[in-house]
From TrEMBL:
Its EC number is 5.1.1.13. It comes from the Eukaryota. Transmembrane segments: none annotated. InterPro entries: Asp/Glu/hydantoin_racemase, Asp/Glu_race. This is Aspartate racemase. Pfam families: Asp_Glu_race (PF01177). Keywords: Isomerase. SUPFAM superfamilies: Aspartate/glutamate racemase. One of its GO terms (molecular function) is aspartate racemase activity. It is an enzyme of class 5 (isomerase).
Length: 333
């Protein structure tokens, strides 16, 4: 049974799938759980392209229903978070886990949220079915950039109409077009690069080498799109960004992801460990794992993860802080 909360999957005639909800604590075992999370979202279900429900099959009680765009529910809280689904549905679900987990610290409740996601992007990038090679993935992204921008803008519009008052995008790749998709919206729209840079700045880290600046390592599987904005945000806070050289990336990092996609888990782990060690040897304080693929390789108890950070944790903490601050402002709506 749920102590408090509601999730509703809605399939409208003109909109993608999206979820309304107020996060909750669950007394039973959850269907999906992140590391060290004691409070989490119990279950989420989606509709298929025909509007049929895919049942979770775990006995969890959920409120659900179809409604048309004419009768669309709109959340009215001034601190409602709008979560823009990116390329991966899984990364969106993981981010909702993070919202529930970080919100529950110190006995607090998760802010209200509305989520919009659909399978268009993953289909366009050929990310469903058989796993594409890293090179094929990049080729598909380059060919479908305009589609991605239009899709993300449409989601923002849906979220705004549904009552969102602040936006978060839990997708590293989609942030490459943050500037294009945010300029037409008046809502606060957090950037994951800003969130990471500010948290690292507030950590007041000391350089590994006394004569140098603080160095931050960056690993991503979409370097052509992701590196630029992370470098910009981190360098603006005085950090030096350290990347793998091209040869190491092509012979270590790319094969690590390809091995994971072939289900060679041990091979993927060994290669990723080498990539992280290469950056650590170059004197970085921490390594940013700016890819959902990379976050899924090492086991949660691997010592190397203590030297790595997941940017989506910073994004979750920042959007929660925005929501808590906004809720305290009288008459703001």
């Amino acid at each position: 049974m749920l102590e408090r909360g509601m999730l509703m999957s809605i399939q409208t005639l003109n909109h993608p799938q999206f979820l309304f909800g107020v996060a909750f604590r669950n007394r039973t075992q959850t269907q999906y759980r992140t590391r060290s999370s004691n409070s989490s979202i119990s279950s989420v279900f989606l509709t298929d392209e025909s509007g049929n429900y895919e049942e979770p099959g775990n006995g969890t009680s959920l409120m659900r229903g179809h409604i048309s765009s004419a009768s669309c529910i709109k959340l009215s809280q001034q601190n409602t978070i709008g979560v823009i689904g990116g390329v991966s549905v899984l990364s969106t679900l993981v981010f909702l886990e993070k919202l529930a987990c970080w919100s529950s610290r110190n006995g607090k409740e998760c802010p209200p949220f509305v989520v919009c996601s659909d399978p268009v992007l993953s289909k366009a990038l050929s990310l469903r079915g058989s796993f594409p090679s890293t090179r094929t993935r990049i080729d598909h992204i380059e060919l479908n950039q305009e589609l991605m921008i239009q899709n993300l803008r449409h989601k923002i519009n849906v979220l705004q109409q549904s009552g969102a008052r602040g936006l978060a995008l839990p997708c590293h790749l989609s942030h490459a077009w943050h500037k294009e998709i945010s300029k037409d919206s008046s809502l606060p729209f957090l950037h994951v690069g800003d969130c990471v840079a500010m948290e690292l700045k507030n950590a007041k880290m000391k350089p590994i080498h006394a004569t140098s600046t603080v160095r931050i390592g960056l690993l991503t599987t979409d370097s052509s799109f992701v590196v630029c904005y992370y470098k910009e945000k981190l360098q603006s806070q005085g950090f030096e960004v350290v990347l793998l050289d091209k040869a190491t990336e092509e012979h270590i990092l790319v094969p690590a992801v390809d091995a994971l996609q072939r289900k060679d888990i041990e091979g993927a782990r060994n290669l990723l460990r080498i990539a992280i060690h290469v950056l650590l040897v170059r004197g970085v304080n921490v390594v940013i794992l700016a890819s959902d693929d990379l976050l899924g390789i090492l086991p949660h108890n691997d010592p190397l993860l203590k030297k790595c950070i997941d940017p989506m944790d910073a994004l979750a903490r920042s959007i929660i802080n925005w929501a808590e601050t906004t809720a305290k402002v009288p008459g703001r709506f």
